[in-house]
């Protein structure tokens, strides 16, 4: 009998409910949970492909010490011994934990308790520093607590939704779909997108402000001043519930229109249109994400936005409020347990002596950290200069994701003791571990996560633990016991940890702290197992309802009032480099690709690392479409494929964050990003690297597919992606390869019994080699003096779909699809595997809207994440037809 388990998606902060079904053969399939209030049955492309990421290929399945498998006992003894010894010799601040918004609340609670309460240092920080910390700092400045006031429903109820620094369509696709559906139902609803790039999110925008990078503080200061002038502020709310309005207004009013135009790079008309929309609409929600947080002025951006909502009293009421979209599945849970180096547990403050005393008594802790620990960037600097001598990294890949990533790599290489808990054996970070601990992954682990709207949901196990893998909390609790902190770490299940966490949230709270889930403190194992998604706060005895904060005007500063923050517009950075490099995400990959990189479907959307640049900039640099481009800063350089697009403004480049040394020769973008941080939050300004760009002229270019994973790649440029039935590979080099047949045999692991079929065109300088056995294609390589032009999707499809023997490999070597098996082009709809060529075909045959294209090709009919791109292709092709 198939078994179904309700659980939660492990990717973004939307926190969609997933129903995972395991059939009699053990095969897993997933679908959206129709009853989960985050998604009501929807899933995006990544969520829909979850089952394809569960195989054990590459998984870390046993503890390793210096690369050798050992028993858990030996590994944990070593970790406990080395941490204890380092602390004894050099004090508690000589050790550190660097954890992640992708561990469960229970894991996070244990990590924080061990470091802050028992080791006695606050040197625990998390990748949330790179993600949410400016929002945390902004919330705490304004509200006195890290509170997200609203709910997803507010986004649907609003009459104006502002999306600033958020590519919602690709990064929070299910909220985007909910927004798009609400707008379709109520066309009077307006959407404004503020982003230097014209992203897919602009598909539903009534107004797109292509703001100059970091023009946000000025824009929202200008808005505040405008609202005052237009008489649209709420004097009663300001007077009764806030402090600091006059100062904030004075600063805001000092900006002239010319200042605003200069800072934002926007024409006066657009600025006015935006101000008018905000002025004349009561129900406004302002959603923001990394274009706001990841900035040297990130905290000020957050407060400049909140200032406008406070001034109009538009906060905490249905359809109104500032809305920080959380990135990771448990970014919010990490904040609840106080996982950042400058926080305490349960939304208590590290700088507050009463809070420290309260937590110490609750934990019965021998010592409690009394000063903030090192924030992520500083933490790795301390590893580099030897102040930190032992570090435990859990569920994050800092050699890829931190700025100045090569310094991080060097720091880990020099660190006397590095422990990494991960699910994958080979990542750019695990390479530096002295001790590697195998963790349970999604579907195996058990606990809770909290999404962007403060909703706690269960992640439930539906697979057995593979080999020796163990939960992250178990690893830390066991080490804590071995370090002599026995009683305080004696849990036997995630349920027991959750109960303790909930009890701390309500301990001596009496309404003084926003985070109170006392109502969940007495759940027994069965009730915890059955826990339905629930929003916090959930104090003891309170009914379960949708909750919003601050409509009553009560905030969490000691006097109960909110604060306006008098922000200054940052000075425009005068970079000495030609370009500003903006970095971010693509639709179908998750961060460093350790999971989404396993799915052929997800890898087919964008199969190669790229840099987007404006066609005019490209022309000035002598870069043609599909050329390779060297992007360099004073910290390092990367080699990426040029993607020319007017969506990008001149002077600005965009590159994705996903590719790393496992998937490409040099695409780890963190190595070029400078570690400039926000002064309040310590969050790196990851969207603003100063770089140069130049074409990279290779002597040869190659494209290959292979059923075996290519080994030992060492060409100047290569990028690898999973394909159905094998792998696809892009390459380029400056040095000639003497014997391509031998190269293929080695790289694609082809035996001497298989002879290649060769095709050479001396005039064009192209060469093609195919290897097949028993009519099954093993590998094919296309070489040229220019970037290779072949119908890639068609070639890839031959890996598992061999045409009849007569066609192979002659047709294949032609690199063009025969009539029998047409080329799809780049895959747009990853769920239904529909390519751009098929979509264009449907448009040519008369389809004039996305629904019709869906009926004709099935594209966009499953998760819907690609509908914006389909519309874009349609508009583009109709425009081309009209020319
Ligand atoms: N597909 C996918 N989805 C994801 C993730 C993923 O890896 N893949 N990761 C998740 C995580 S952890 C996070 S944090 C979120 C991030 O979600 P988002 O923040 O939406 O994603 P990003 O692509 O990082 O950046 C958002 C936008 O900010 C814009 N931007 C850059 N500079 C500025 C500026 O100065 N001002 C303004 N207003 N905008 C600017 C960029 O052009 C970019 O389009 O996504 C989550 N969802
Ligand atoms: N330039 C630039 N840099 C950025 C950003 C940007 O926009 N631009 N964005 C930043 C942001 S917002 C974020 S959130 C970070 C993300 O960056 P990272 O956190 O470094 O990226 P991930 O690939 O999510 O790393 C998660 C790791 O945990 C492992 N893992 C998965 N599940 C588990 C588990 O259950 N237990 C354990 N122990 N391990 C597990 C995965 O295999 C992987 O190695 O990147 C940041 N870096
Ligand atoms: S929007 Fe997509 S990635 Fe995010 S939680 Fe939902 S299914 Fe997962
Ligand atoms: Mo993030």
Q: Main attributes?
A:
19% strand, globular, six-stranded mixed β-sheet, binds iron/sulfur cluster, alpha/beta, 30 helices, Dimethylsulfoxide Reductase, domain 2, Rossmann fold, 883 residues, seven-stranded mixed β-sheet, binds molybdenum atom, binds ligand MGD, single chain, Phosphorylase Kinase, domain 1
Summarize the entry for a quick read.
This protein is α/β, with parallel strands linked by helices. It folds into six domains: 3-53, Phosphorylase Kinase, domain 1, CATH 3.30.200.210; 64-130 and 330-442 and 467-495, Rossmann fold (3-Layer(aba) Sandwich); 133-324, 3-Layer(aba) Sandwich (Dimethylsulfoxide Reductase, domain 2); 579-696, Beta Barrel (Barwin-like endoglucanases); 700-812, no CATH class; 827-882, Arc Repressor Mutant, subunit A. The site of one ligand MGD has 31 residues, from helix 6, helix 13 and strand 21.
Write up this protein.
This protein has 883 residues and is α/β, with parallel strands linked by helices. The chain has 6 domains: 3-53, Phosphorylase Kinase, domain 1; 64-130 and 330-442 and 467-495, Rossmann fold (3-Layer(aba) Sandwich); 133-324, Dimethylsulfoxide Reductase, domain 2, CATH 3.40.228.10; 579-696, Barwin-like endoglucanases, CATH 2.40.40.20; 700-812, no CATH class; 827-882, BFD-like [2Fe-2S]-binding domain (Arc Repressor Mutant, subunit A, Orthogonal Bundle). Helices cover 31% and strands 19% of the residues. It is built from 30 helices and 34 strands. A 7-stranded mixed beta sheet has the order 5-4-16-15-14-6-7, with helices on both faces. The chain has a 6-stranded mixed beta sheet with strand order 22-24-23-26-21-25. Strands 28-29-27-32-31-30 form a 6-stranded antiparallel beta sheet. Strand 28 (717-723) and strand 29 form a beta hairpin. Helix 2 (72-90) crosses helix 20, helix 3 packs parallel to helix 20 (472-482) and helix 3 (105-119) packs across helix 21 (494-506). It is globular and about 80 Å long. Bound molecules: ligand MGD (2 copies), iron/sulfur cluster (SF4) and molybdenum atom. Residues 131, 327-328 line the site of molybdenum atom.
